[in-house]
Amino acid sequence: MATALAGVPRTEAKLSAKDFKTDLKPIWCPGCGDFGVLAALTKALSEVQVAPENVAVLTGIGCAGRLPGYVSGYGFNALHGRVLPLATGLKLTRPDLLVFAAGGDGDGLAIGAGHFPHAARRNPDITYLMFDNQIYGLTKGQFSPTTPMGDVTTTTRFGSIEAPMNPATLAMAYGASFVARAFSGNVPHHAAMILEAFRHPGFAFIQSIPPCVTFRGNEQFKTIREKARWLNQDDHDHDPADWSAAWEIASQADVYDMSFGVIWRQERPTYEERLAFLREKAAQRGPAELDSVLKQFHP
Amino acid sequence: MPDPSTAAHLAAAPSAPRKTDDIVIGIVGSGGDGVISSGELLVSAAAAEGLYATILKSFGPQIRGGESSCRVRISQEEVLSYGDRLDVLVAFNWADFGRFREELALAPGVLVIYDTRDGTPPEEIPVDPALAPVVLRIPFHDLATEVGSALSKNILLLGVLGELLDLPTDGIAGAVERKFRRKSEEVRAANQKALDAGRAYVLRELTDTQVPVAFVHQKGEPKLLMTGNEALAFGALKAGCRLYAGYPITPSSDVMEWLANELPRFGGTMMQTEDEIAAIGMCVGASFGGTKAMTSTAGPGLSLMTEFLGLAAIAEIPLVIADIQRVGPSTGIPTKTEQCDFAHAAHAGPGDTPRVVVAPYDVADCFRMAVEAFNIAEEYQTPVLILSDQYLGQRKESVEPFDIHRWPVVDRVTFGENGSEPYRRYRLDDGQVSPMAIPGQAGGEHTISGLEHVETGDPTSSAAVHARMNARRHAKLERLARERGPELVRTFGAERPELGIVCWGSTSAQAREAARRLNREGLAVGVCVPQLLCPLPVAPIAAFLDSVERAVWVELNHQGQFYHYAKGRLDVDPARSRLYARSGGTPFSVEEIVDQVLALRRA
Fold this sequence. Notes:
Chain A has helices at about 35-45, 65-70, 85-95, 105-110, 115-120, 165-175, 185-200, 215, 220-225, 245-250, 270-285, 290-295, and strands at about 55-60, 75, 100-105, 125-130, 180-185, 205-210, 230, 260-265. By secondary structure, chain A is of the alpha/beta class. In chain A, helix 1 packs across helix 7 (about 185-200).
């Protein structure tokens, strides 16, 4: 059976969230929902017992893209939409690292949408967190692939006429073996979701809702907190192994009518495990020696 | 005397065959005729015999299925090009020949052999009578059916050619045996029968037939046989590449297929990705983690990789990208060769993107340049592009056995320890390349990005810092050209050349042969072949240009891309230089280049 973070060295050291924070001051707007994700991430990292040097935080471009600079460890704020290939390439060659990938809804569902299904089906042991605030914040307020129909933004002055995408159902349909939903206004719960994702062997997807106070107003935090339902708390029982129940929860698209928690979990071999199996088979071709490879070129 | 209507027809027979140790044979047929397989077996036989050989395959536009042709050149002397004109043409049918006519120029007195099954009368075959062809009709299909299966007619053909042309018949039998050694006893016996039937036919029916050409040779030490793409992939493996990611594209997919077989047992990974963007992205991710990584593609794929090329350049991530060029723009002609991506390779990327471009000049050099590309990428922490092409990548060629351990492998300088100082990824005070801290190294934690940065890697929008960092990134390249340029510009041909040819990549093969031919005729011609194209090693190329009276620049693209690039960096005297650039689709012929050199004299 697959083990999460197989090959990642664990530390006995007592770590706190502070150990994973850098001195760099985030450039996010005051009150931004991303602060909650950052707090949740550093808390989860401190609890998974992996030293900062074995942590890699990779991101695309957008407000979320600045995350690596604020987290201790190795970071790479790469290209818009391309964090998943980067993370997969790193994890497959360095299974001893905890690889955390993140990006916004535009990053993952617009420009980078082509990579999401493939990362999910390959099932490398990485966590992918999507900052889903339903808006392009860094470029100042254009509509995104998850913007609700009818919303007025800087590029939809008459209301968006495009049907939004749903990251959670897409993740399930793509074959992600772990899907959770988190709200940045509830840091302890959010941190728990990230920790669950770390402990899941395989591709773990988190749809995180970090309200954009600049383009969505201050009210969102309050309203989501009031309306949120918490899975497996408050008598809201859910079995993440139940596809139909999971699909129903994943289908919730209105941030004011959402359940948060682990939606879907499935144990299946990780890419790394299959790769190890493939390498064993390939070893039957001959020893890992260049001279033996050269033989095939003799006429 | 054989009956000319069924067995053989002799148009014009010279009294005695011309003896040659350098022969070019073309074979044409439909899918299923086994044309390519015949050609490969001939090359394999030649290499085992210690001869030099090369095969150029050509397919119709459909990549898979349909008509195909190959040309095989076998020679006692080092084979530099595919040979301009066929000494022997084998056509299983004339309809297929029609499709390749443009590519298959025939030599005067060519021996033409075709299957009796194609009903075309000898006087109506599409071969210029002015060439005085010697025409033989042989019932390949019927003979093969007689001994077992029409499918073995390509093997039967080898029996015929071996006997008829004095090719090494034992070598051919050995090549057939090796190719089918894992097949059933039945298949192997059937092949032997077909070979024997071919030889027997010649001895029975054609003893009185004078063929125009006979091959003479001396046996030598066996050569290696590989394609440029295999050599390139093998070089990558040797250099320590442990992640290859790519997306299938003609004519580069063989690189991926070869590494898919070989990388896993070395603990490496081959990823077939969802697109070329993901391919280069995985390489950047792997290299960030300290693993040497490569992708390969063709022009259209390189377009998709451009944004990551810029990222690797600013973040200073070692990376190798091979572009096996094909005819462009856009989809172009996927199965045909052209040196048309130089401008793209040299300039792709947003902003002042530094990059290195190297070009191997023959099959063996594909191995060496792959090792070199990784070494440069590691030492200078930069993306390196390798410009190969369809002609170089997909032709199988004899290669002098070489010691794979001869070339040293360079690894990036990694961060040791800093003491109390915080780690600085991009130091401005240490001569352009800073030790790389690799994830997992305690004390080296840092964040990099595509943003302009200060020394630690943290983002900045300072114009002054940007200018210094740009200068730092480009200074690396200047140092590369200075330190490695002289050894990465090769010269061939006459020691004191009067006339020169400047070319790069696969065109060097025909250029070198043109020089060899002209030198034998008493004209001192030299060839200058830069393997390092970007940054341009100005001094050694300038020295070559100074050493000749006149030079012609030859490249296989419409614009003369490399010439114009070089002209912007070198003093090229227009009175003493010519540009010969033409669109690809077919590689240059040696004759074409000879003509260009001769034109220099008239100029």
